[in-house]
Amino acid sequence: MTVTWEELGWERVAAGVGRCRLPGWDCTAGLVVGAGSALLVDAGSSLAEGSRLRALAEELTGGRVTHLALTHPHFDHVFGAAAFAGAEIFGAVGMDTVPAEELRADAVRGGLDEATATEAADVLVRPRHLVCGEWTLDLGGGRQVLLANVGPAHTAHDLVVLVPGASGSPEVVFCGDLVEESGEPQAGPDAVPSHWPAALDRLLDLGGEDALYVPGHGAVVDAAFVRAQRDALAARFGVSR
Ligand SMILES: [Zn+2]
């Protein structure tokens, strides 16, 4: 790396793993650096934001963003995907069926200006690789990540990204909006609350006690935080153990 994460406004989470908190909705975008490859996790809320993310990621890695994982079909996580048309794009199975108009309308309700939302919806890029269960992605240089479809929960199509620890670094789990730190987890009309606690149980099984959990919105948390949020969601939605 020629520049540091911090110099570009990113947070280094572990060796070769970082994230930035995007303006507006405080949405996380993650980056995992491989050998001659790089995986971005989520693409930002507009074409322009996707382009900015791509430029920053490529400055950090000195190479191209070769892979993009989309954690779920919400505008603030996917509207920048068209800026990564050359990358291999992954998402949970079925996320390609969510109508672009639905995302556009939700974006406008969420405060994105109408022209920006319409532009992003018009060129919306769908994942070419649809994950049901688990998918191991080899980024080279001994760097493998696991994409796991743990939903439905926050949406019908929730994907998490697990990055095993390397050279003394902790494991990192990109949780999408299954976990939020900066506020209550958002459960919209497309959420499946009855399954949400089970999805977090699965997330904790995969990540374990010592992993760093990166929420879709907010600061990095630990397993105890995720477990507490799981219990709060179970109580909120009346889901028994
Ligand atoms: Zn969301």
UniProtKB/TrEMBL annotation:
Gene3D superfamilies: Ribonuclease Z/Hydroxyacylglutathione hydrolase-like (3.60.15.10). Signal peptide: none annotated. The keyword Hydrolase applies. Residues 26-217 form the Metallo-beta-lactamase domain. Keywords: Hydrolase. The keyword Hydrolase applies. SUPFAM superfamilies: Metallo-hydrolase/oxidoreductase (SSF56281). This is MBL fold hydrolase. It comes from Streptomyces phaeofaciens. The lineage of its organism: Bacteria, Bacillati, Actinomycetota, Actinomycetes, Kitasatosporales.
